[in-house]
Amino acid sequence: MTQNILILPGDGIGPEIVAEATRLLNALKDRFGLAVELEEAPIGGAGYDAAGQPLPDETLALARAADAILLGAVGGPRYDQLAWELRPERGLLAIRSELALFSNLRPAILYPQLASASALKPEIVGGLDIMILRELTGGAYFGKPRGIQTREDGVREGFNTIIYSEPEIERIVRSGFEIAMKRDRRLCSVDKANVLEVSQLWREVAERVAKDYPKVALSHMYVDNAAMQLVRAPKQFDVIVTENMFGDILSDAAAMLTGSIGMLPSASLDAQGKGMYEPIHGSAPDIAGQGVANPLATLLSVAMMLRYTLNEEAQAARVEAAVGRVLDQGLRTADIWTEGCRKVGTREMGEAVVAALAD
Ligand code: NAD
Ligand code: IPM
Ligand code: MN
């Protein structure tokens, strides 16, 4: 059965990196029998330019109908002065929320070839393989009340609400246990339970869910300590489960353990396993249009899509192996380049991965 993939290039480097993902998917289709059809639609600033909205109605309708979605990145200085609801980031948040993509998997895996590209010493990051599970449709990102208001004394104040219901906590924590069961069976729940009531509830629910998973060792860690531990001794973690904003921040930090933020893919899944796939990085306005962005996080997001939504494990493994081969060949985009390697651009990297696909 042919599956439909909706491609949302977005802004900045989005179209450049997504072009390589499209090249890869077409190669899997032509050479390895992957049964997919690709369709493209605008989102973010591109959505605003095309239809006056960061998430055009038509894009949302196509997203609902698609079997899987691949997104590049959204945002950029051109759009920063737009009214709040028209900003590109609102489009990304809206599609996550509309499709109920609450479970965001962000694997931080160090390819051994990149040990020297990491900001940390090879012995600290060697063999690193951690999974950060970020709650994606709740917390401060969506909580109400929110806004900017003027007090009676004329002073302006901005406010947001971090709110999580028990069912919202339970479903993401449960996903964390399920993932841990397939890995090293260690789940670290990261919170701020020494300060925030919402974290107290989170901890309570995590303890309750843990009773259903006696084989998984559950631990709790405050988020400030977790940030420190991630750079001190990241291999102590197997699976981390955390709320939306903490997960956003910790995953960018974890990305640097792997050499570059250009290496970290992600899957955002709903309760049925349908999903949107995207690199965790942004639209990188500082390098957009130069053809130098690292496409590997996006290509590895395609691998996650093949694995988690399209049920094509062999194709996923094929893509990941091809990335490994290209790194073995010494090809590096600027962000992961080290002495003795060959510096390549976005397109050359994408073409090399396609050329390295093996039977
Ligand atoms: P960013 O992730 O876009 O860039 C941070 C730094 O990492 C930059 O120096 C950039 O050049 C570099 N970088 C990022 N991806 C790279 C890649 N593939 N290859 C090489 N280098 C890469 O974060 P930012 O600068 O804080 O945000 C820029 C814009 O992107 C903002 O509008 C922000 O809202 C948006 N953003 C979007 C997403 C998304 O679409 N998922 C995620 C984060 C930020
Ligand atoms: C990410 C991004 C987004 C987030 C922004 C652009 C809304 O930083 O995907 O990590 O904060 O979730
Ligand atoms: Mn982020």
From TrEMBL:
Keywords: Amino-acid biosynthesis, Branched-chain amino acid biosynthesis, Cytoplasm, Leucine biosynthesis, Magnesium, Manganese, Metal-binding, NAD, Oxidoreductase
Enzyme class at the top of the EC tree: oxidoreductase
UniProt GO BP: L-leucine biosynthetic process
Entries under SMART domains matching the protein: Iso_dh (SM01329)
Reaction(s) catalysed by this chain's protein: (2R,3S)-3-isopropylmalate + NAD(+) = 4-methyl-2-oxopentanoate + CO2 + NADH
Chief localisation class: cytoplasm
Gene Ontology MF: a single term: 3-isopropylmalate dehydrogenase activity
The organism's place on the tree of life at top rank: Bacteria
Gene Ontology cellular-component terms listed: cytosol
Isopropylmalate dehydrogenase-like domain mapped to chain residues: 4-353
Details of cofactor binding: Binds 1 Mg(2+) or Mn(2+) ion per subunit.
Pathway where this protein functions: Amino-acid biosynthesis; L-leucine biosynthesis; L-leucine from 3-methyl-2-oxobutanoate: step 3/4
Positions contributing to NAD(+) binding: 76-89, 282-294
Site (Important for catalysis): Y141, K192
EC numbers for this chain: 1.1.1.85
Cofactors that this protein relies on: Mn(2+); Mg(2+)
Subcellular location: Cytoplasm
Binding annotation for substrate: R96, R106, R134, D224
UniProt binding sites for Mg(2+): D224, D248, D252
HAMAP family: LeuB_type1 (MF_01033)
Family as reported in the entry's similarity comment: Belongs to the isocitrate and isopropylmalate dehydrogenases family. LeuB type 1 subfamily.
Record's subunit section: Homodimer.
Stored PANTHER family: 3-ISOPROPYLMALATE DEHYDROGENASE
Functional note: Catalyzes the oxidation of 3-carboxy-2-hydroxy-4-methylpentanoate (3-isopropylmalate) to 3-carboxy-4-methyl-2-oxopentanoate. The product decarboxylates to 4-methyl-2 oxopentanoate.
Stated name of the protein: 3-isopropylmalate dehydrogenase
Protein's organism: Ectothiorhodospira magna
